[in-house]
Amino acid sequence: MRLPLLIALTMTAFAANSVLNRAAVGPGLIDATAFGTVRLWSGALCLAALCLMLRGTVRLGGPGRVAGVLGLLLYIYGFSAAYVALDAGLGALILFGTVQVTMFAGSLAGGERPPALRWIGAALAFAGLVWLLWPKGAGSVSLLHGAAMLVAGLGWGLYSLAGRKATDPLAATAANFLIAAPLGLLLAQGLPVAPDAVPSTAAGLALAVASGALTSGLGYALWYHLLPQVTGTAAAVAQLTVPVIAMAGGMLALSEPLTGQFVVASVVVLGGVALSLLKR
Length: 280
Prior knowledge:
mainly alpha, 11 helices, about 75% helix, DMT family transporter, EamA_dom
């Protein structure tokens, strides 16, 4: 039972990132790109301090480092750029759909052959997400911002696949953040900001720091600890629970309404994930 509980804890940390982002960026407490940069630097500093305390040193090399750093940058800033103008539900669908395709393709290329139930469960879980998250109404979709979310999904898929090579999860995650943080400062200069962006507030910065140090830094280190213990396709499907957990967190923390559609769609998503992880 230890492994499923740790996976559930990790997915909760990922979902908390979404709730913290919405709590900070939604009310205009901080710009989305600034949130991503502060998140990245906070994670880097927290993980570096932990490495110095527990390992006595910080090592920047290791297997999968280039893919890990590139994937982290693509995810953080693709996500920030996309949500300048992209509907949150549609953005989540694009993100997690791309993650599924990237991780399944990478795992198949690496020789993994997932059972039929995993394909069926993944399809069922994603269908539940489509039902839950598809935007209401017929608003126009920005192709530019949709493409940015595609980049974010590709980045997170690469980051997760790179984690399967990590021999020291804490050191590997710290190295990814430490290398990505200064590069991120340069990348952020060329990203668009929201037309109604406001200067960063103390509350917005605090939420970004919490997201970076706790739910990103420590959450990603735990993810890198778990990835070598599960198949790539199983890790991909497990992440389909994140939007459901994030919406539940929004209901608890942000007083968002509970709907019958959420209840039924959540059962479909979680049932599809459970089905995909069955042995036979």
